[in-house]
Amino acid sequence: MITIVDYGIGNLGSIRNMFRRIGASAQVTSDLEEIGSATKLLLPGVGAFDNAMARINEGGLREVLDRKAGEGVPILGICLGMQLLTSGSEEGQLPGLGWIPGRAHRLPASPRLKVPHMGWNLVRTARRSPLTADLPPDARFYFVHSFAVQVHDRGDSLLRATHGVEFDAAIQRGNIYGAQFHPEKSHRFGMQLLSNFAQI
C-alpha cells in the first residue's frame, strides 16, 4: 500500500487514480497514525515552499516523516514535494526536510524561455536507479515549476533536464526519492516511474 500524504497541498486524487490505473494500491490520508505505520509514502506538493513546510511542521507531521525516513521507508516527493526533500529554496525562508543536501533556485527568465516552465521536457539519465528503471532514451515528462533543484552531491542526481539552465529532474539518496515533474500527467513515462516506485 502506498500512502499519499494529505497535508492540504497537491493533486491527491489524480495521483491516487494513476496508481489505481497501474494496479497499485494507494490511499490518501492526513491521519498521523496511518502515515506512521505506512510502508511506502508519497509526498505531493504544489504552490509555495514556505506554505508547504509550515503545514508539514504543524501538528506533528514533520516528526512522523523524519521517523519514517530514518526507518528506511521508501518516500517519493513529487513537484514541490521534491523540493521539500532538500535543505531549502530561494523561494522561502523556512528550511526544508534536509534529507537530500541541495537547494531549489529560481529558473532564469528570458524572451525565449518563459517561467514558470510549463510543458513537456526531455530528461537524460545521470545514474541508474530502481525509480527510473526501464525508461526509454526518449523519456519526457510534464513539468510545471518556477524553481528547480540543484543537489550538492552529483551522486544524488538521477535525471537531468534543461530549461535555460540544467537542473535535477529526479533525485535519490538511499530510500528518499524525488521527481520535479508530474508523473501523474506524464502518460506512459509517468506510469512507468510510478510503477517502479510501487515495486521498490
In a few lines, what is going on in this structure?
By secondary structure, this protein is an alpha/beta fold. It is 26% helix and 30% strand.
In words, what does this structure look like?
With 200 residues, the chain is α/β, with parallel strands linked by helices. It has one domain (2-199): Rossmann fold. The protein is built from 6 helices and 13 strands. The strands form 3 sheets. It has an 8-stranded mixed β-sheet. Strand 11 (157-163) and strand 12 form a beta hairpin. The radius of gyration is 15 Å and the shape is globular.
Supply database-style keywords:
200 residues; alpha/beta; Rossmann fold; 3-stranded mixed beta sheet; 26% helix; globular; hydrolase; lyase activity; lyase; cytoplasm
Class of secondary structure makeup: alpha/beta
H/E series: EHEHEHHEHEEEEEEEEEH
The N- and C-terminal alpha carbons lie at a distance of 12 Å
> Low-confidence parts lasting 5 or more residues at pLDDT below 50?
none
In the CATH hierarchy, the architecture is 3-Layer(aba) Sandwich
Q: What global shape is seen?
A: globular
**What is the count of β-strands?**
13
List the quaternary state of the chains: single chain
Approximately what portion of the residues adopt beta-strand conformation? 25-35%
CATH fold group: Rossmann fold
Query: CATH homologous superfamily?
Result: Class I glutamine amidotransferase (GATase) domain
